[in-house]
Request: fold
Amino acid sequence: MKTLLHYFFLLCLSILLPAVHNQCIKDQQQSLLHLKKSLQFDQPSPLISWNSSTDCCSWVGVTCTSNGHVVGLDLSNKTISGPIPGSFANFSNLRVLNLSSNTISGTVPGFFANFSNLRELDLRGNNISGPIPGFFANFSNLKLLDLSENHIRGKIPHWIWSSNQLSTLNLSCNDLVALEAPLPNSTVETVDLHSNQLQGQIPTFLPSAKYLDYSRNNFISIPLNIGDFLTKTLFFSLSSNNLHGLIPASICKASNLQILNLSNNSLSGMIPQCLTAMRDLNVLNLARNNLTGSISNVEVTEDLQILEIGGNQLGGKVPKSLAKCTMLEVLNIGKNNITDSFPCLLKNISTLRVVILRSNNFYGGIECLNSNGTWPKLQIIDLAHNNFSGEIQGILWRTWREMMATENGSLSKIVVGSHTRRKFFGSTMTFSSPRSVNFCSRETYNQCLAAKSSYAKSSYAKSSDAYDSSYLEYGVSVTVTSKGLEMELVKIISIFTLIDFSSNNFSGPIPKEIGEFKSLRVLNLSGNAFIGEIPSSFSNMSVLESLDLSQNKLSGHIPPQLVELTFLSFLDLSYNQLVGRIPTSNQFSTFPPSSFTGNKGLWGFPLTVDNKAGFPPPPTVNGRPPNSGHHHEVNWDLISAEIGFIAGFGVAIGSLVLCKRWSKWYYRAMYNILLKIFPQLEERIGIHRKHVHINQR
Ligand SMILES: *[C@@H]1O[C@H](CO)[C@@H](O)[C@H](O)[C@H]1NC(C)=O
Ligand SMILES: *[C@@H]1O[C@H](CO)[C@@H](O)[C@H](O)[C@H]1NC(C)=O
Ligand SMILES: *[C@@H]1O[C@H](CO)[C@@H](O)[C@H](O)[C@H]1NC(C)=O
Ligand SMILES: *[C@@H]1O[C@H](CO)[C@@H](O)[C@H](O)[C@H]1NC(C)=O
Ligand SMILES: *[C@@H]1O[C@H](CO)[C@@H](O)[C@H](O)[C@H]1NC(C)=O
Ligand SMILES: *[C@@H]1O[C@H](CO)[C@@H](O)[C@H](O)[C@H]1NC(C)=O
Ligand SMILES: *[C@@H]1O[C@H](CO)[C@@H](O)[C@H](O)[C@H]1NC(C)=O
Ligand SMILES: *[C@@H]1O[C@H](CO)[C@@H](O)[C@H](O)[C@H]1NC(C)=O
Ligand SMILES: *[C@@H]1O[C@H](CO)[C@@H](O)[C@H](O)[C@H]1NC(C)=O
Ligand SMILES: *[C@@H]1O[C@H](CO)[C@@H](O)[C@H](O)[C@H]1NC(C)=O
Ligand SMILES: *[C@@H]1O[C@H](CO)[C@@H](O)[C@H](O)[C@H]1NC(C)=O
Ligand SMILES: *[C@@H]1O[C@H](CO)[C@@H](O)[C@H](O)[C@H]1NC(C)=O
Reply:
């Protein structure tokens, strides 16, 4: 109280006497210069402004009280390495200390025990080891503690939860193994424990929590009464644990939930009826579990913006109630057992960006005679591995404006919940910036190397579902802002556009209108019965990176204009009836012979007399042609090095960093998108590419 009055007095003083405002006192300046000297930097003098001829309160990263006492130090992202030096001990009045994004190692030093005035301590993204120091228990003013992305071990001490000021605790991306008992009632509001090794049942003791992230741990079960502890919760993620059993219906009591993610577990049984109907739910992700039952009669809330239930064993038809989701942006029902005709009811949802129906039993044409609806924002449509048939009319595609956009990477945003009744929470969902996602950027390198050997055998053939929900889970981006609290959760690659109609029974010619898709990156029409020539308008798809037309009945010459597709790095025209000479260009000469084999009349480089013609049709898998995986055999040793490099930048995309599944995700085209985003990789990947090609030969 006394100090409070003291500060209040000083505040008044500083208003009355602006002249003395913020004059750094001498001994503070010396302590700072002493500190500067004792810090190890990996780059020369990032603290140039720390210069004795100027007022130390004006130095970068320094915050003073009005009487010149240093109370805030922000040395984040200053290439500081080595242990935390003892010269910090002079600053025991600190209220805010930010050392995030350096490579500081060692443990939190003992003299930190004197920093009991700290309100915010941010050590995120360093190499700090050891357990959580016990003296933090004495930091009665601590509001924010961020130790994420370090190597903190052991248990999460129980006292941490009873700190009465603490509102944000981020311990994600460490090596924590348990929550120490007994768990007290706690008023912490933001709790992020993702990417540790926590086990057992999901704990329920945080009734005030608005944000709860338990993803990427080893939790095995959800208590039946979980909903009683989620009444204030807006964001709840249990994704990527080892959860078994049913989804407790009590979750529906969490009436404020905006984002619920239970994906990538082994949850079974039916989807509780109340769940999809939860009024304020904007994002529901149940993908990659073992859920069963028919979804034909599921009632969904009209507030849904993202619905992901792909990768389960759900049957029945596409629920009619989806028609009222007029704000739906992402629909993923791929990899289930849904038997239905093309869901024309979706045609009226003009907000859709991502539609994934792949690997189900959809049948029939994809035209909707009774609908005038359009999909002007569509970016990704994946209908692969179904029984769709019929011809595709060019007119059908005319309304997919986003794919025709000429500017790169539109910055359109999804605002989660803006339209709802909710007053206190507006969250923004961005389909734009390719940046770090909800995992650890440092987790990464070593784990990837360790995991490498077990994935070394995987080939692209096994990852034919490269664009299933595992891509999307980490692709979608959420920035959450509530009162004074801003959190970025997950991000997407906005510029990504894909059409995958592969392995169906589509027939007729490929409409020349496809050339209007000036923003399309990936086009896969393989394994159908398309006939006629490859339209020369293909060359208008100026950013196309991956083109697969293999295993159709295409005839005629390869249009010479195709050489104009300068971004094209994957091409497969094999097993058609193409004739004539393969166009020559620098780029075409980089494609392997397998891009062209199986076309009797085709000749020229890279085909040789040996592999020119007369190839038997490829073997089939389960009655379908195999994915053309043989083109993608890759030297995993080389790639994992790239992965580590990317991860080291703290920038990663999709499940790239999720070492466990990254091989599934790997896809040549995606790789090239990385190139666009991180042009600095060009050189390294260039080298790597060569190796891939050598491998293929
Ligand atoms: C400190 O900064 C001033 C002005 O920016 C400059 O003139 C002076 O040389 C600097 N002194 C040192 C010791 O770097
Ligand atoms: C620490 O600095 C980083 C930027 O370098 C910033 O994003 C973060 O919010 C800061 N932490 C605190 C507690 O202010
Ligand atoms: C760290 O600083 C570098 C350059 O100084 C900048 O490019 C990078 O974005 C910064 N990172 C963070 C997390 O602020
Ligand atoms: C504190 O700062 C003074 C200079 O003001 C310095 O002589 C002293 O060594 C510092 N103490 C520590 C523990 O670094
Ligand atoms: C904490 O501060 C007190 C007084 O300022 C000092 O005597 C003591 O040595 C400090 N403790 C540590 C561990 O630095
Ligand atoms: C992190 O710290 C450990 C020791 O605690 C050390 O062996 C390792 O090299 C450090 N890693 C980096 C990237 O500095
Ligand atoms: C907390 O502070 C009290 C009194 O200031 C002291 O006796 C106790 O040892 C401190 N606890 C820790 C863990 O530093
Ligand atoms: C916690 O830290 C991780 C890694 O630093 C970060 O990705 C995540 O967004 C943070 N969580 C919250 C709620 O801010
Ligand atoms: C938590 O709070 C509830 C009611 O508010 C109370 O019944 C219970 O005993 C408390 N538990 C602990 C461990 O303090
Ligand atoms: C999924 O459910 C089926 C029965 O419905 C069961 O046989 C199978 O073992 C389950 N798989 C997992 C991974 O739980
Ligand atoms: C898929 O659905 C069909 C009927 O629609 C059913 O006969 C079949 O058993 C289902 N398959 C699985 C694996 O559930
Ligand atoms: C489609 O549009 C036409 C005229 O624009 C209208 O007459 C017709 O009723 C519409 N059909 C549907 C199914 O909305």
About this structure: The pocket of 2-acetamido-2-deoxy-beta-D-glucopyranose (ligand 11) is lined by residues 313, 315, 337, 339 (CB under 6 Å). Residues 10-21, 408-415, 417-494, 613-697 have pLDDT under 50 and may be disordered. The chain has twelve helices and 43 strands.
